[in-house]
Amino acid sequence: MTQPSRLTLSPPEPLTSSEEGSFSFYTMTERLPNICHKLIQENEFPEEVIGLLTRFSEEVRENKLSLLHHLEAPDFSQWDNYLKPYLGSTWLDVPWFFAETYFYRKILDIIGYFKEGELQNFDPYRSQKRKGLEMALESIYDLSDRLDAIDGDWQPSGCLMLLYFSLWGNRADLSLWSVDDLWSKEADSSEQTEIEKQQERLLIDDTERLVSYLALRYHKRIDIIIDNAGFELVCDLGLVDFLLGSQIADRIYLHLKNYPTFVSDATREDVIQTIDFLAAEQHPELSRFGLHLKNYLNSDRLYLCDDPFWTSPLALWEMPESLYEDLDKSNLVIVKGDANYRRLLGDRNWDLTTQFADILSYFPAPIAALRTLKSEVVVGLSQEQISALDLEGGDWKTNGSRGIIQAAFIPD
């Protein structure tokens, strides 16, 4: 595959959280401190950890960035270098993407995730992830029934449906919504009606182009940069089962976080536990779904990758050469979720009409981003769209009601 040039456009300034009234300001001053308090409620931490988390929730609102403490962490030196340009700055003054990724890294530092002891390798978000999976069980049954009906056959409408499921599974992002309010069983509707409903909420929809590309050629390798655990991960695994079972793809590589972050982001352990959960279910279609996935893992058709880059604060155009060369081998890279989309664009203040492909000139493979809008960064819109959305009122960039399936470098 021909390597494209690296970033060719001059990137604008990164988003920060300093502007009162912005979604990023709300995130740093309200959402993230509340996550600290929720962690205290949901976990039986020692008193020392509870005190540190409480003080940290106040630091994020008001104070300067503090250093990491546990030198034994494998990424300590990297984070030490990431921090150097921002020493002396407040949490609100540094780039927002850096602030968020560092916030979650600090939580692991506080609880002793990398330190030998009872909390070593402990996922502080595990109860939320598990609860999200269990509360979505009826939706998971529905998904497994649909997969069973497809039964390994290539169906363009089935692929379309699963891509939309994979997209809107993002509505279960646990860092933004409480799982108690996520799942309500709506009246059944036809597949076509469901697809039309999905399309109405998409600002950019390259799905049919993507499905045509998948259908017209054999794909030795497809990569998916995974976002959330829970129901969204199950939807992603449904897409995996469909693409491998229909022989559209020979191998699929899932790119995961190497430690817990952003509350619901999926790790290798989350994938393995989810597959075990599916395979152990009494619902026959669901159990078959889980066993398919186990077989793909055992037969080297499904790979789980957790490069440390995915928990760094870096833009995707700053990826290490080893990761670039790995993605260069892919026939298609599917990028899931809002935070991964922000990383694609460097979380910069791009003009909303900037073309997606112009920014992504640095990327080594055909790419498709599936993302619900939950932050202010988005590109590829027309001025007419922007004006109409602004007239509608509401926080359309951040409330999760709109989505995009946006592709670049897809061969005709």
UniProtKB/TrEMBL annotation:
GO molecular function, one term: metal ion binding
Catalysed reaction equations from the record: beta-D-fructose 1-phosphate + H2O = D-fructose + phosphate; beta-D-fructose 6-phosphate = dihydroxyacetone + D-glyceraldehyde 3-phosphate
Stretches for region Disordered: 1-20
GO biological process, one term: DNA damage response
Pfam families assigned: ARMT1-like_dom
KW Ribosomal protein (keyword) present: no
Gene3D superfamilies cross-referenced by the UniProt entry: 1.20.930.60, Uncharacterised protein PF01937, DUF89, domain 3
Essential cofactor(s): Mn(2+)
Highest taxon of the lineage: Bacteria
Residue span(s) of domain Damage-control phosphatase ARMT1-like metal-binding: 27-385
Entry keywords, A to Z: Hydrolase, Manganese, Metal-binding
Homology family: Belongs to the damage-control phosphatase family. Sugar phosphate phosphatase III subfamily.
Name of the featured protein: Protein-glutamate O-methyltransferase family protein
